Amino acid sequence: MTDTALLSEIADDTNAPGNPVALAEAFRLFNEASGELSRAYDGLQAQVAQLTAELAAANGELRRQYQEKAALTERLAMLLAALPAGVVVLDDEGVVREANPVARNMLGLDIAGRDWQGTMRDRLEKTESAGEWTSGAGMRIEIRETALDSSGGRIALLHDITETQRMRTLAARNERLAAMGEMVAGLAHQLRTPLSAALLYAANLSAPSLDASMRERASSRVVERLQHLETLIRDMLVFARGEIGSRTLVRIDELVADVVQICEPIARGNGIEFLALAEAGDARVWVSRADVVGALTNLIDNAFGAIEPGGVVALDAEVDAKNVTFCICDDGPGIPAGLQKRLFEPFFTTRAKGTGLGLAIARGIARAHGGDLELASNRGRPKHRWSTEFRLVLPRAAEVGSER
Predict the structure, then answer these.
(1) Beta strand residue intervals within 82-232, DSSP E
(2) CATH code for 245-404?
(3) Which pTM value belongs to this model?
């Protein structure tokens, strides 16, 4: 029976006047119920106070976190504005969500909400170097993109490397001038020897006792020495200028086909086996086609001159995400360790008819394209163990904008 029912029953019993026992019992029950209500109220009040304190603490923590995030956002905004590099934030669809003032200035417009690849095609021109572009104002810009794992988007960093490129060009020019200074001492000897021989043969042509066959032989010798002089001077000028022809986008297999067309008949005539192993798929490079073909042909011709009939010379190409590496290998006697450090010195040659500029020019062509040329000896291969290997590295053409 509940307290309410009991009180009601007691109240009914106390309707008759003069029932003090029932009245006292009713007051006792009432006091007990009041005490229970008071205790319940106190407990509820304590819970409300505890919840209020917890809510206040939670609100304080949220307010603190909000203030910290607001301050962090402000600092990040100030940092982005103060950065000397351009920063472009892309979503997972390649749309620009945010760009700092430097990026907007580099591209000449507010690019927020625009397609990033389309903006690059419209506002920038691809250069010969991977990841480097030029703007309409002549600024040279390096662009590097990094994936954002959390959102699936990307961040593109834009660096103004105009001055760096200028210093790069100036350093290459100074290097060539320094090399030219070293060449001067050897140049006199290089020119004097064939010139003296030509003068000697030419002087013999005036001898009255010289018969027709000897006169013809002396004449051919004069022409041969003069041609050697012409080749020497041409190679020297090419090396000194350090310039390359206009660049185009060329597939690796096209370059290899050009080289094979030139070198295969020479190899066949010398009794040498020439292997074109290059299988580079659709890889392409942004190069001066004639200059690169000339450099590869020169390297292969050097290999032909280093081996005996029956030897093997191979042209291979290795492709990775950034570079294409042409490997020119032969199974000849190899290059002595004492000579390897001097191979790329101007006018250094071990061939009687060499000018000593071929390797220096080939390296200059590779470096003018943003690559390099190096020697790697005694390198093992699955089918052959090559005694000598030259590796000419060129930057692989970037996919973005490569069609323009």
Answers:
(1) 86-90, 96-99, 124-126, 132-135, 140-147, 154-160
(2) 3.30.565.10
(3) 0.48
